[in-house]
Design goal:
This protein has 270 residues and is α/β, with parallel strands linked by helices. The chain is 47% helix and 16% strand. The chain has helices at 17-28, 57-71, 94-104, 106-122, 143-163, 197-212, 217-229, 241-252, 255-265; strands spanning 8-11, 32-37, 47-51, 76-79, 84-86, 125-130, 168-175, 186-188, 236-239. The chain is globular and about 60 Å long. Pfam families: adh_short.
């Protein structure tokens, strides 16, 4: 049994940005919240911060053991930790792509594998995996980042079927472009090529503009709270107007039309 009357939430990547605002919103919603960061940071009001590297299985196992020791259970996991990668697909080494997947995909799987036995024993729990509109549509110079989010979409939907009989639900939250520090979790391709310079620079400029005009992190946090507290959760939650529009676009418009729109929107010649 829990050592507190509050439900226990774990939010990875909670030191800043969407993760921090989400952790704060869950605390306001009545959860006892544990957040993670790769380096030690001071606790935030209502949030106990713990160090965890999601690319290190021992670190993840130690994190879960620490929370169980302090709180007795874990009711909600929000897999938010992630990094971006900007560059042409040809411009990234395979080693760089492996590191990206190690955080964005395998990091999620490590956390999930660590908490599932606990949730089965509790006969319940909820896992929220942070996806993106790039898990729904392609974006030039985001090929590998989009690939990680497509992977999270498929992984989460499959996993939800597998664990539902244990009282556990797996949910996707799909943010649009969000007003967070652009450089905060962004990596650039490690083998830049002159042939892509003009188009890549244009895409980066467009991305900066989208970030400036994007949703506030609170939009995503509110969506996470909705997904966490719903009695009968949906599989997917679009976070913000842009995300809802992209989902509708992808679902109902012909593939060729979507392709032409994205190509033109990205500044490529017809």
């Amino acid at each position: 049994m829990s050592k507190t009357n509050k439900a226990i939430a774990l939010v990875t990547g909670a030191s800043s940005g969407i993760g921090l605002v989400t952790a704060q919103s869950l605390a306001k919603a009545g959860y006892q919240v544990f957040g993670t960061s790769r380096k030690p940071v001071v606790d935030r009001p209502g949030i106990t911060m713990l160090v965890c590297d999601v690319t290190d299985e021992v670190s993840v196992t130690d994190l879960v053991a620490t929370i169980i020791k302090q709180a007795g259970r874990i009711d909600l996991v929000v897999n938010n930790a992630g990094v971006g990668l900007l560059g042409g697909a040809e411009e990234s080494s395979i080693a760089q792509v492996r590191r990206l997947f190690d955080v964005n995909v395998f990091g999620v799987a490590r956390v999930v594998n660590a908490v599932l036995p606990l949730m089965r024993a509790q006969k319940g729990g909820r896992i929220i995996n942070m996806s993106s509109i790039l898990g729904l549509i392609p974006s030039p110079f985001n090929a590998f980042y989009a690939s990680t989010k497509h992977a999270i979409e498929g992984y989460s939907e499959s996993l939800d079927h597998e664990v539902r009989k244990f009282g556990i639900r797996v949910v996707l939250v799909e943010p649009g472009v969000t007003r967070t520090a652009f450089e905060e979790n962004l990596t650039r391709a490690d083998q830049p090529m002159a042939v892509y310079e003009t188009d890549r620079s244009r895409s980066e400029g467009l991305m900066r503009k989208w970030v400036e005009q994007g949703d506030a992190p609170e939009v995503v946090a509110d969506t996470v709270v909705e997904a966490a507290t719903a009695r009968k959760p949906k599989l997917r939650y679009s976070a913000g107007k842009q995300s809802r529009q992209v989902r509708t676009l992808r679902r109902y418009m012909p593939e060729g039309m979507v392709d032409k729109m994205l190509h033109k929107f990205s500044g490529f010649p017809a």
